[in-house]
Write a structure and sequence with these properties.
Order of helices and strands: EHEEEEEEEHEEHHEHEEEE
Distance between the termini: 22 Å
Number of domains: 2
Structural class: alpha+beta
Radius of gyration: 20 Å
CATH class of the largest domain: Mainly Beta
Helix content: 10-25%
Shape: globular
Number of helices: 5
Strand content: 25-35%
CATH topology of the largest domain: Jelly Rolls
CATH architecture of the largest domain: Sandwich
Largest sheet: 4 strands, antiparallel
């Protein structure tokens, strides 16, 4: 799960908002489902884009049937579902390599926002560090993966190696980790594409380590360093896609609701695509 906090959208998005017209959803080989979620105030709006049958070998830019307006103060969350049963007990951690994982969405929008390039998040709470037993990491460019800096007895060990051999992945641990990723506060980062003097200084001091921010609402953080806190809104009613196929004229937003003739959809985790061409359409959905 990745967050773009309200503080980030308030900082970067102009008062009139931006128009998203396409999205590229991305995980690595363990990804099975992806949602690009959109929150405003006390409401979860229709998903911008989603794929309940994600396949790493079939990734594409998805044009939305209706453009989506993102306003300052909106919250964006990318949620991914993984299946790691084929890894034979090896832990899968985040990283750039395809043997590691990521959860991303690339939004295509207008008008252009000079200096804005990315919005990402990670969990930095003490409770989370105590759960996994890792308190500081760095990125080893030679090895191409994150390595442990603290605690000292594991210094230099890759996070993937540590997670595979030093964590007891019983049912309780898996449940606790998922709960933390969903409900613990995330620190969102939305720096200038070209680092400011202050951001460059922090980068030199910390390397690839995170700079912690205090707990609080989503606008609390270090705005000079483009860091803002964000939480998943578990207190509001989640968006639920309609249980029936809709014509294009009936859809309310993202491409997940509009379905062409010859196809049918079900809830998250199950999508059936129509076979072959139909007289009135090609028989596909979610694209």
């Amino acid at each position: 799960m990745g967050h773009c906090a309200t503080g980030c959208t308030s900082r970067w998005i102009p008062p009139e908002g931006i128009s998203v017209f396409a999205a590229f959803l991305h995980t690595h080989t363990s990804g099975r489902g992806v949602r690009f979620q959109h929150f405003r105030g006390n409401e979860e709006l229709p998903w911008i884009s989603s794929d309940d049958n994600f396949n790493f070998n079939y990734q594409q830019v998805r044009l939305l049937r209706e453009e989506r307006r993102i306003l300052p103060g909106d919250q964006l969350i990318q949620t991914c579902v993984y299946n790691t049963m084929a890894r034979n007990g090896s832990a899968v951690v985040g990283g750039h390599s395809t043997r590691h994982e990521m959860c991303m969405a690339f939004a295509y929008f207008y008008n252009r926002i000079p200096g804005f390039a990315t919005c990402a998040s990670q969990i930095e709470t003490e409770e989370y560090a105590n759960l996994v037993g890792i308190y500081n990491t760095t990125f080893d460019r030679t090895r191409g993966e994150a390595v442990i800096a603290e605690p000292a007895q594991y210094a230099g060990l890759s996070v993937a190696n540590y997670a595979t051999n030093n964590i007891n992945w019983d049912t309780q641990m898996r449940s606790d980790l998922q709960r933390h990723h969903r409900l613990q506060p995330h620190t969102s980062y939305c720096p200038n594409a070209v680092a400011t003097v202050g951001e460059a200084a922090v980068s030199r001091l910390t390397g690839n380590n995170a700079v912690s921010v205090p707990n609080g609402n989503s606008n609390v953080g270090n705005s000079a360093m483009s860091q803002y806190e964000s939480r998943f809104r578990a207190d509001i009613t989640p968006f639920s896609p309609p249980p029936r196929c809709l014509k294009q004229s009936e859809s309310r937003g993202g491409n997940h609701e509009a379905v062409r003739p010859g196809s049918e959809t079900k809830q998250f985790g199950r999508t059936k695509f129509g076979r072959g061409r139909r007289e009135n359409g090609r028989g596909w959905s979610h694209k």
